[in-house]
């Protein structure tokens, strides 16, 4: 009987050991199931993030297209403004050249007027001298005894 109880004891210990191992395996399975659940939640979160990123990429592409369209439009406007500015600069240069020609002609005209004024001054001086001489002669003639 002693052998029997040893066998029973041995079986009991073996059973306890097996049950302990089964409990350990069940605990590990429970932990694994929790980890799987956590991984599934993480995967769902990543999928949501991926969808958000995909939407953001689409939004960025639309924004980039709008930006490129705006750049093209503004580049065309800038080119047109540049051409207009070149035309205005050319017109201003032409006006400035015209003013230079007008100034030159006015200066030439002033020089001619100055020459004419000098000529008239010379003639007036000549006539004044003649008048003075005639006036002196008249004064002398009046002083002659025949007029006294």
Automatic annotation (TrEMBL):
Q: What is this protein called?
A: Uncharacterized protein
Q: What is the lineage of its organism?
A: Bacteria, Bacillati, Saganbacteria
Its domain of life reads Bacteria
Q: What are the boundaries of the region Disordered?
A: 1-20
């Amino acid at each position: 009987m002693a052998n029997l109880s040893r066998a029973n004891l041995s079986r009991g210990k073996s059973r306890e050991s097996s049950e302990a191992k089964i409990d350990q395996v069940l605990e590990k399975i429970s932990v694994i199931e929790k980890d799987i659940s956590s991984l599934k939640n993480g995967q769902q979160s990543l999928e949501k993030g991926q969808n958000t990123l995909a939407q953001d990429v689409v939004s960025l592409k639309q924004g980039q297209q709008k930006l490129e369209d705006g750049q093209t439009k503004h580049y065309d406007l800038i080119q047109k403004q540049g051409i207009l500015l070149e035309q205005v600069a050319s017109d201003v240069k032409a006006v400035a050249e015209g003013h230079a020609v007008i100034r030159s002609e006015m200066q030439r005209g002033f020089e001619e007027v100055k020459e004419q004024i000098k000529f008239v001054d010379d003639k007036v001086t000549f006539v004044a001298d003649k008048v003075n001489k005639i006036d002196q002669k008249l004064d002398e003639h009046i002083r002659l005894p025949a007029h006294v």
